[in-house]
Each structure stands twice: as C-alpha cells, then as structure tokens.
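Suppose a colleague, Dr. K., hands you the sequence of a protein chain of 282 amino acids and asks what its three-dimensional shape might be. Before reaching for any lab equipment, you can write down a predicted structure in token form. Begin with the sequence itself:
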Amino acid sequence: MNKKAQTQGWLSLPGRRPAQSSSALSNSFVPEPNGAVRRPRPALEHRSLLGAGDIAYDERMSAKEWAGRLPAVKSKAELVYESLHAAIASGELRPGERINMDELARTLGVSKIPVREAIKRLESEGLLVSRVHSGVTVAEVDKNEIRGVFLAREAIEALVGRLAAQNADAELITGLEDIQRAMRAALAARGDQALSHLNTEFHRRLAAASGYRVLADLTEQLLLTIRRYRIIAPKDSMDWQSVVEEHDIVIEALRGGDPDTVAEAMRAHTASQARLEDTSAA
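The predicted structure, expressed as tokens, is then:
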C-alpha cells in the first residue's frame, strides 16, 4: 500500500483554522480594570470566535464569566490523537500496520512532539504498540481474547440495560427505533460497515442512558475491540440479521419498563453474539 497516498487520504486535523490577524484581535471585547467587559462597537451584538458560531455577548458578564463561554481549543496532540484513533477504529489503519512518525508529522503540519504524545496515549489504550526494531504499529487483535471481551460485555450490557430502563423515555426509544430502521436498510443493501457503525450507536445510546460515564467508556472500549476484530473476521449477513432481531427484543423490553427484563434481554443479546463467534471459529 502506498503509505503517502493512504496518509493523505485519511489524516486531517479537524478544526484547524488560520490565526486571527492582529487587526481582527484589536476589535475583540476588552476587559476593564473593574472586571467588567466592554465592547468597542455598540452596534456589535454577536461575535464569531474560532469558527465555533456566534456567541451572544452580555454586558453584565464579568471577564471570568465571558472567558467561560469561549469554545474549548484542542491541542495539536489531541487533534493528532483523534485522527489516528478514527483511522484505527474504521480499519483504514489495519492491525499490524506500521506508523511512520516523520511522515505523519509532515502530513499533519505539526512537529514530532504532539505526534509522540498522541502515540503514547494510544499505546496506553492498547491501540498502538511500540517496539525497538519495528517501530510503532497498530496493535493486533488477539482472537483468543475476543471471548473474554464478550464475557465482559455480557456483564456490563446487562447492567447498562437495567439502568437505562430506569431512565428510559420516549426520546430514547424513538432514537433506537430510528437506528433499527437504518440497520434494516443497511442489511438489505449489504452495507456491513454501516451496520457496524449503527450497532455501535445503538449500544452507545443505551450506555449514555445508564447515566454513568464509566459504563459509557467501558462500552465504547469493548465495542471498539470488536469492531477492530471484524476487520480480520467480518460478520456475515445472517449474523447481522440476528443482531437486528435481538435489538427489537431489547426495545420491546424497554417499552415494558421492567429493569430486570431489559437486563436479561441485553445479557441474552451479548451471549448470543458470543456463541456465534464460537461457532464461526470452530
């Protein structure tokens, strides 16, 4: 594979924009000694900052309060991390593929420092591996560990389902039904990549509804491992059909409003998928 062509195809730094000129900055809101903020031109009601959209100005705000409304600015290391993470998750960077740090830095227009920081973070997450003689590569997916991933998911998804049932509302159920319609359309079109993304979104919505960030993070991590496994062991259409059918059972349980029923539906769904993996590996 042509590394340069591939790199240019997927790598970009989201949100990068030219810096404002000094003349543009001179028209920004000016803090007064007493902590208030004045605007240089009374006619100016809104001002777009860093391309994040219009931010309403309120003369009653202190300088500290105004600063709190400014959009967060991501570091270069964070942007490099996001680009690499997205490429690994999508399979554009495949397991075992080598990362050329010099070329990566040149392509993104950054120094090696943010690249090293991003790589260290991805290493800590188990997505990249650094070795003395082979450099940095995308971590392989251990087929023997996939069973363990499903066992962990079985416990976590049951807990997520129980908590989501306690917090479920019409908006959650409608959103899950929309995903199901999209999954059926993708199944008919044999769009495996779309099915994978939609399946992730289905479980992501439920994890968010649990109300606990740690469960959302664990769900995301386990689903990412499975998505990477699918790169080397794709799921066939019959397996995806069972996923859609089991999702329907989860939604119906949510409508019923019983946490135990939803927990069991989620546990059974994950256990069923684990059995399919065992069957396909046999």
